[in-house]
Structures are given as C-alpha cells and as structure tokens.
Amino acid sequence: MTALTAPRHDWSLKEVEALFALPLNDLLFKAHSIHREHFDPNAVQVSTLLSIKTGACPEDCKYCPQSGHYNTGLAKEQLMEVQKVLQQAKAALETGASRFCMGAAWKSPSKKDFPVVLEIVKGVKSLGLETCMTLGMLDVDQAKELSQAGLDYYNHNLDTSPEYYDQIITTRSYQDRLDTLSHVREAGMKICSGGILGMGEEETDRAKMLIQLSNLAPHPESVPINMLVKVEGTPLDQVEDLDPIDFIRTIAVARILMPESHVRLSAGREEMSDEMQAMTFFAGANSIFYGERLLTTANPQADKDRQLFQRLGIHPERRDVPVDDATHQAALQEAITEQKNSKLFYDASQASSLSDGAERERKPCGLVV
Ligand code: SAM
Ligand code: DTB
Ligand code: SF4
To answer: 189 vs 44, 192, 220, 279, CA distance in Å?
Structure first.
C-alpha cells in the first residue's frame, strides 16, 4: 500500500505558485488523487448556518453586509434567545446537517452576551449536533469556556494574504486573527479558517493566504473558501467578477496543501453553475453550507442542492455522533413532529432580513438518505 500524502507546513511561495501555474487538467488530477487518498470522493460534509446576532458590527470588513460602517439596508437583530436557536438547530438536524454553525456580528463577544452564548452551545451540543461558532476575536479564557461548554469548531477566517489584508480591513490586524486561532487551538477546539476570493486580490495573494493556513500546525480541520457575495452598499459591491476557473484552481491548491482538511465550498454558491460546483468537488471541496440562507445572504434552495447531490451521486458525510444515541433520536423525532405541525417553524422575521430581498419559504428539506 502506498503511503498517504502527509500534511506539510513548509510550503514555499515558489512551490505554491508553480501549482497555480499548472495546466488545469494536471492540477485537477493531482488534487483529486490526493483527495481520494484521504476521503470518500463522493461524500460531502453538510453544515447549516444561522446568524444568532445580525448587523451593526463595529468592524469595517469591506466585503461584509453586517458592518456598521456601510449602509446595506440590513435589518439588525440582537442576540437570539436560546430556545429560538435550539428550534433552528432541531430543524437543521432533521435536514441531515451534521454540524450547526452560528455566527454573530461582533468584534468579540461581550461579558453580557457570553453566558447566553455558552447556554446556546450546551443546548445545541445536547441535540447531538457538532457545534461551530464564529463570534469574532476570542481571548484564551473565552476559548476555554466555549470548549468546556461543548463547542467543537471555531470559525475565524484569515480572509486574504497578509499583504492584501489592509486593503480590506483596518479595524483588526492579521496578527489579531492568528492570535485568536492560537487561543482556539490552546483550548482544544477544532479550527475552521479560510478566506474569500474575488475581492480584487491577485493570484499570488491566494497563494500567500493558503500558505498562511497551511503554516498552522496542525492544519485547520475545516477550510472555508468563500467567493465574494457582492452586496450593495459595501465598498466591494462593484469589484470585477472572479474567473470561475481561478476559483476552482484555488480549491485544488487548497486540497493539495491541506490534504486532510475538509475544504468547504462556502459563500457564493448561489452564483455558481452546477457544473462549476461539480468541478470544485472534483478538485477537492468536500463540505457545503446547506439551507437557503448563509448569514444574511441567499444560498441555493435546498431542493436544488438535493437534486445536485443526486445528479452527481454525492451523499452527505455521516455524522460523528452515534445514531442510536437516545437524546439525539428524541430530538430528531421532536424536530420532525414540530416541522410537520408548523408551517411557521422558521422565524419569519429572519426571512425578511435577507439582504438580497429574497423572501423564501424556509421549509425543511432533508438531505438524509
Ligand atoms: N464577525 C465574525 C468574524 O468576522 O469573525 C463572524 C462572522 S463573519 C460574517 C464570518 C466570515 O464570513 C468572514 O470572515 C468572511 O470570511 C465571510 N463573509 C462575510 N461576508 C462575506 C461576503 N459578502 N462574501 C463572502 N464571504 C463573506
Ligand atoms: C465562512 O467562511 N463563511 C460563512 C461562515 N464562515 C460563517 C459566512 C458567509 C457569509 C456570507 C455573507 C452573509 O450571508 O452575510
Ligand atoms: Fe463584523 Fe465579521 Fe462582518 Fe467583519 S466579517 S464586519 S467582523 S460580522
């Protein structure tokens, strides 16, 4: 048996630029071969995303509809109540999501809100879902408390290269981000960290960002690669479209650099054709956000994703939690019953805060096979 491609933490810029420069077929072949060594090539991990605190963020990230520095017409919402979050988590459970990711538009969690956040983590965890949060910067103590409450993953993106970073964000530094990631590791949680493509950066910035991520030892378990969702009112609203082939190349290079990580095809799928998504799965993407909303912007209709999975012969990756776990089964049953009994299960106020104005019925729609 041949040895598995081992993770490395010493990629040079020259090596990574050479990967980007390969003919596409050679790059895809290399990435897909590595992908098959480590993963079932037809399994895709499925996460569901919920914004638990929306808008009015003090940071100035130029891509973000939730920054208080720009007028995007987004309806602001305070931190959700624990029970409301748990309702949504149960709905996610029924659709077959294995991980429930919660995002808050904060610079960092406040003393007042933090106990509520910990309650949310405990509640979601007790349903048998993997838990993930993205709340901005964390100090060591906050990271430890989250970990003790049962948080599995913390999402904090590097977003771009250190060199391009200042063009995008001025209110927190690259080093702040690296510090948060190191606190997350120290607390024993898994890291979810990636970036955004299509913000006007050069290919070399994409290479440098991937090198930064692959310098983390161990590699982030989850690497979300977002394609910029252009939101009116943000400074990046008019930036030039990214060539889809460049997006696919970046996914392939991420797969080669971080062979054991889940690479998530993250924001931007609404703008991608089925064929483009199929190519990203071949290139090594093996995780998506499922459900018709990301945090504040639209994601593909659940039905559309179900059809895509069927057409491609892809199945959702199994949950890590034991399927015969009594609490999990009870929560699942309860979620199914609630869903059947209530058309209003999804909070209508949330649907109306979609920043693209799309008001969709958020019906449960399982990927469970
Ligand atoms: N406030 C927290 C933070 O930034 O750490 C958590 C929420 S923030 C919205 C999570 C990530 O979403 C950002 O780091 C960024 O990578 C991504 N994101 C935000 N707006 C986006 C957009 N318009 N297009 C693509 N990705 C976006
Ligand atoms: C990540 O890298 N992408 C997700 C998740 N982590 C939290 C967020 C995407 C947000 C896209 C814009 C929005 O919906 O507000
Ligand atoms: Fe705030 Fe996060 Fe948006 Fe930046 S990306 S403005 S920190 S919500």
So the answer is: 22, 10, 10, 31
